[in-house]
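Allow me, if you will, to draw on your knowledge of protein folds for a short while. I am sending you one protein, given as its amino acid sequence and as whole-number tokens for its backbone shapes. Kindly check, if you would, that the fold set down in the tokens agrees with what the sequence suggests. The record follows directly beneath this note:
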Amino acid sequence: MLVVGEREAAAGKVAVRLRSGKDLGAMPLDAFIARMRREAESRVDMVDCG
């Protein structure tokens, strides 16, 4: 989940919370995008497994 309040918007950041409830804190938007790209690229589609 991303949270963008007044503080985050002013700083150009997003606050990141995982589904597990872990709070990753605020990070620059470009850092969040890079993190999500790495995570998505590391996953394997089930179609490719069989």
Summary: The chain is about 45% helix and 25% strand. The CA atoms of residues 16 and 24 lie 5 Å apart. Residues 29-41 form the longest helix (13 residues).
